[in-house]
Amino acid sequence: MTTAPWRDHALPAAARVDDLLSRMTLEEKTAQLYGVWVGASTDGDGVAPHQHDMSVDHDWDELITRGLGQLTRSFGTAPVDPALGAQALARAQRRITEAGRFGIPAIAHEECLAGFTAWQATAYPVPLAWGATWDPPVVEEMARRIGDDLRSAGVHQGLAPVLDVVRDPRWGRVEETIGEDPYLVGTVGSAYVKGLESAGVVATLKHFAGYASSAGARNLAPVRAGVREFADVTLPPFEMALREGGARSVMAAYTERDGVPASADPELLTGLLREEWGFTGTVVADYFGIGFLQTLHRVAGTPAEAAHAALTAGIDVELPTLKCYGDPLPAAVRSGQVPEELVDRAARRVLLQKCELGLLDEDWTPEPAASVNLDSTGNRILARRLAEESVVLLDNPDGLLPLAPDTRIAVVGPRAADALAMLGCYSFPSHVLTHHPDVPAGIEIPTVLDALRTELPDAKVTFAQGCDVTGPDTAGFEEAVARTAEADVCVAVLGDRAGLFGRGTSGEGCDATDLGLPGAQGEFLDALTATGVPVVLVLLTGRPYALGRWHGRLGAVVQAFFPGEEGGPAVAGVLSGRVNPSGRLPVSVPQVPGGQPWTYLQPPLGLAGEVSNLDPTPLYAFGHGRSYTTFAWEDGTGGEEPAEIGTDGSYDVSVTVRNTGEREGAEVVQLYLHDPVASVTRPDMRLIGYQRVTAAPGEAARVTFRFHADLSSFTGRAGRRVVEPGALELRLAASSADVRHTAHLTLTGPVRVLGTDRRLRCETEVSCVE
């Protein structure tokens, strides 16, 4: 028997795919371009926007005779035992391969934003917590574990990470982002991509591009970002994750920019992504995003017109179902409305990816691993480490923390005794189990209350909820205030409830009108502080909230961004002192709640000044975080006399960080760029490097940043990325508001125009110091 060329391992993938395409009918090619959501309902509320009116009824047995591109969320739609789910997925793949002429399996994809979104799978901290760690290696390790779990269940593609840069913290999906700075988002996001791809899972970058810049922070609202904001803030994390992370898929954003939806934008999805950046993987639609070209954007009159626009732009795969690339697409090709070359282009990319994954090989098998354990001991240990590193001690003015081991503690607040307080909207319990209220969470999630009782067994701990997360009811205040008055210290655990489309205070479609604490929680905190008992505020949230109203009235403030299944013990460890807090803010914490959508990336007119009575200066700056130990910053590179380097030159800037306290701790050394004069307005400060350093008492480390002039580049007036000659300042800082040393530079020589080979990262070196 002669093996067909497309099955021949010895041939290059491109030759195999070309041979296969030449044998396929139009319907077989288009079948590779869509997914099927087998477990999705077509009525009532779903787990995705417009799921009920964008789904398509189909005859599964007839459909798979053409083949199938993708299987949508076999694990992430309803609770299913992981081992049984893996077997069911394998059976579905067997049916697909047996039904089609070529025996090609589907790519199975799942959400994996904060862990595999499946029942009984580890719920890791959300991406905003990854940003708070400032620790890309541990994020990479987490992603590798997530990838291993996905592969063990038969899944090939993960819809993560989110690389949107926060522009307005009122946006509901802030919890899904890594932070408000493109360098932090790019470096941490690239680490996630490396980890997922190292496990053999296709990482999918979301949401390309501009989604987080929506007007008024409303989900899916038009994007108002200008050319330079788009180029210098929105795009760099995607470029880094592709070039350094090796991501093999990109998801087109729902939103439009300047009247052009991303899903119908060939300049973005083909011109920039493929022709300029050289991307060769697949572009997939966000769920129902192609159909939205007709129903929400109204740039297409029919599903076939939407398919034409999306294919022309460069979207290869329609997810999660076949509204436009199903029957409407081949009919449009046969009528001459859509050139078949567009179908061939997309099918070639899909099949090349299937070839990379081994899905075109004769010896491919769908059988799952012998055992599927999605919440292993190793996973939980890593989830605890991530959670502990992500907790930010915002304030501890009088050293109230750590708590004494035998103290009387009143634990109060709506988030203290609720396990879901730890989880973001894309965790399985928050995302799916709300539709299955009788099904248990499937994983152990200690609450702050339970964890604190375990952490401090000699303390006398009482509890009162006080109020709900939302709603005006203050009836519970009296009991909580009474418990507080009887205690030595009050631990008030407040914050968000993750949800979808208005069913929570944080999450997709849960946008905020302002940055005041939800519901009656602000009034509740007022009542607690009025007792005179010291109050430790613990925030479990998906976004920053304005805290200026209580500044100077609280004994301590601890911020955790949905820290995952091990978040309760992590927070309790910080309160007890077992954990020395080392998290740093990935987003600024505002003074006041209303009308100041602000990030630290501001040009001079975006800062406080005499031109306005409104002061947007945050209460706690980007990069801020305190510790139970102290660090001295010594011998920083700098001085009044500037060094000179060319516009293509390099310069090392260093500082010695010494632990001058009595316990081991971690410091995050941050490097910011200040450009005093440029041809366009520039942010007053911009992060270009950072290094997390752990040191025992008395130990010191020398941190060296290898700055290259490329890192000073920006999009000039002509729309090209340039390095301009002139003065620069490199600022070594503990936060964007806490500069410790400054190195002055002068760039000499001509203006340089940069290409796609520009340096994206500031390399660092850490050496021990006696």
Descriptive overview:
By secondary structure, the protein is α/β, with parallel strands linked by helices. Helix 16 (377-390) packs across helix 21. The longest helix is centred in the first third of the chain and has 18 residues, at 82-99. The model is unreliable at 41-45 (pLDDT under 50).
Categorize the overall geometry: globular
How far apart, in Å, are the first and last alpha carbons? 71 Å
E-strand count: 27
C-alpha Rg, in Å? 26 Å
- Biggest sheet, in brief? 7 strands, parallel
Overall pLDDT score: 95
Can you tell me the residue ranges where pLDDT is under 50 for at least 5 consecutive residues? 41-45
What proportion of the residues is helical, as a percent range?
Answer: 25-40%
Number of helices: 21
Derived structural class: alpha/beta
- Spatial ordering of strands, largest sheet: 1-2-3-4-5-6-9
Percent strand equals 15-25%
Task: Give descriptors for this structure.
770 residues; alpha/beta; 7-stranded parallel beta sheet; 6-stranded mixed beta sheet; globular
Explain the layout of strands and helices.
Blueprint: H1 13-23, H2 26-31, E1 35-36, H3 51-54, H4 60-63, E2 70-72, H5 82-99, E3 107-111, H6 127-133, H7 136-152, E4 157-159, H8 182-198, E5 202-208, H9 227-234, H10 236-245, E6 249-252, E7 256-257, E8 260-261, H11 266-276, E9 282-285, H12 289-295, H13 303-313, H14 328-334, H15 340-356, H16 377-390, E10 392-395, E11 408-412, H17 428-431, H18 448-455, E12 460-464, H19 477-485, E13 489-495, H20 521-529, E14 535-541, E15 556-561, H21 567-576, E16 631-634, E17 643-646, E18 650-659, E19 665-674, E20 686-695, E21 700-708, E22 714-715, E23 721-723, E24 726-735, E25 738-748, E26 752-753, E27 763-769
Parallel strand pairs: 1-2, 2-3, 3-4, 4-5, 5-6, 6-9, 11-12, 11-13, 13-14, 14-15, 17-25
Antiparallel strand pairs: 7-8, 10-15, 16-18, 18-21, 19-20, 19-24, 21-27, 22-23, 23-26, 24-25
Helix pairs in contact: 1-15, 6-16, 7-8, 7-16, 8-10, 12-13, 13-14, 16-21, 18-21
